[in-house]
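Researcher: We're teaching a course module on how sequence relates to structure. For the next exercise, students receive a sequence and then see the predicted structure as tokens, so they can try to spot secondary structure elements on their own. Here is the exercise chain.
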Amino acid sequence: MSPRVAALTAAALIGFAANSLLTRGALAASRIDPASFLAVRLASGAAVLFLLSRSHATRVSADDPANHWTTALALTGYAVAFTFAYTRIGAGVGALALFGAVQTTMIAAGLRAGERPGRHDVAGLTIAVIGLLTLTVPGASAPSLAGVALMAIAGVCWGVYSLRGRRSRDPLVGTAHNFMRAVPIAVGILAWQWAHVFVTPRGLLLAIISGAITSGLGYALWYAVLPHLSAWRAAIVQLLTPVLTTAAAVVMLGESMSWRLVIAGGLIVGGVLLSLGVSSRVRA
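Model: And here is the predicted structure for the students to work with:
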């Protein structure tokens, strides 16, 4: 992985982690309802990406898989399922269901496409998954089946969205088009849920930041990275997101640190680095 790709990957993952904290701050604290958060998030992301993409001379062709209704529907499915799952499931079990589905979807697609991970890659993934279980399972209460199902659907949709992004020709323009296509669906869901709408100024601000910065720009960065990654590498590197989210919550929100978090984080980071360090052995 080149220094440029590594830097862009790190920036995208930081955006993902920040987005989790923003969503938690908005929905878990009941500052805004899920439908309003979804609509504002997608609309603000679409607006910022549209303004930025207007300066691009590139025009994404109709056959670009990163600029297609299928890709936009995958993005929308992820955003809808993730948002509504957040009010039904704890953060720990939610992360396990989400990233478990992402890993399964992307790794299965990579194997089907002919990628052949080596023993060190499999060992790294195994260690990272053990770390994820250590991070998310202890202390978790019995989860809502609806919440788990929604978070798993979100993971599958995100896996599909990421896989299609591996053939992106213009990440900024493609991401802008996907967000703009998602907005009408989000508005329709908002209209359907109108009786449950409530918005506070803080909740609205968090939704705008989530859409304009951590989602819109973060997803564009992710699409810039994906063409340089195998499906295996793109899948496993995302396991760093819950580590970054936990670390940020400790530093920024004052949440307590424990040896379990340290050990879990070490296992995830070590497993990812082990797999990425030999990822050139993943053969297609």
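Model: If you want an answer key for the exercise: The two ends are 17 Å apart (CA to CA). The chain is about 75% helix and 0% strand.
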